[in-house]
Design brief:
Layout (H helix, E strand, L loop, with lengths): L20 H10 L6 H11 L13 H10 L6 E7 L5 E6 L5 E7 L6 E3 L3 E3 L8 H5 L1 E4 L2 H14 L8 E4 L9 H12 L11 E5 L3 H7 L7 E5 L5 H7 L8 H9 L9 E7 L7 H11 L4 E7 L13 H13 L3 E4 L23 H8 L1
Helix pairs in contact: 1-2, 5-6, 10-11
Bound molecules: S-adenosyl-L-homocysteine.
Amino acid sequence: MPNVRNDLAPGTRPDLGTMELAELEAALEARGHPRFHARQIFSWIYAKGVTDFDKMTDLSRTLRADLADHFRISTPAVVAKDISTDGTVKFLLALEDNRHIESVFIPDTPSQTFCISTQVGCAMKCGFCLTGKMGLVRNLTAGEIAGQVRVLAGELGLRQSKFNIVLMGMGEPLHNYDNTMKALRMLNEEHGLAISPKRITLSTVGVLPALDRLATEPLMPNLAISLHATTEDQRDALVPVNRKYGLEDILAAARRFPVRRRNRITFEYVLLAGVNDTPEDARRLVRLLGNIRCKVNLIPLNEAAGITYQRPSDDRVNTFARILANAGLTVSVRKSRGRDIRAACGQLIVEGTTKSTGQRAAALL
Ligand code: SAH
């Protein structure tokens, strides 16, 4: 076997942690090893949480040594863990390039939920979201997306349990399409964590071409669309990408989206006091969603320094919800979890050591 890559520094060795099964098989084959070992390695990394080649005891010593010489398995490192009074845990994770991201564990929803990031920062710049203030720093790799799940499952002792995943952390998943879909395939791998796409919800502002592409995926997660407004003008102001992919077009894409049987699209709607929370807004929302198999998740704004909008009163939220419910829509009001540790929706922002211009600007707010 040629040993041509023995001189690779550890950090430049190919990362098995960001490969899906077929890639891992090909990487083994290229080094003259049988492909079936890829399944064993997948099981070590994902099902058992072992990334030290030397501990992969069902592989021969020679194979383990060769793997250690030529590959690495990178895993996001836990830098800090904040625990909310309601049991929510916010993890600050460091990536190999020392960028930071946040992932959140939300217990008892009634199931256990992991809220996972898909980008460092976000390019969408929604007016009420702190992550948007950072701007986009970079996409996460598939390994970094799936790696968050590995880390949280290990840290929380939930590797053998069932949990849900929401792609509602930092970033816009459809703006990092290929890596997000690859991460879903890695998480779905039967020798690994074997997470069904039915347990995964992808939340998006509605990047239209990517939304239509999602409609053709064999491994399809549940879909949540961040609507937040009932007129084009209103949405242009709150969700700037609406100027490119408008409300009407997104609703048309939702109508043709192949929703699984007994399933529905979720429309998320952030309630901002005096902006989009009037009874007229609620009635317009009913008209817009009338012929779509969907449910509505109302999210009263989580306020934060630097965000100029305000959270409406509970009365106002209830009135809005009642109009939807009376019109026959299924509606829920998202309970804000982990607000005391800034882990709630739209509050994820990283003030790390390696700040981008966007991050520095955000930190000044
Ligand atoms: N980029 C994706 C996922 C991001 S966050 C998306 O936009 O859907 C998940 C949800 O939290 C989105 O609906 C987002 O609009 C909402 N959100 C963002 N900031 C918020 C805030 N300050 N308060 C409440 N919800 C917020």
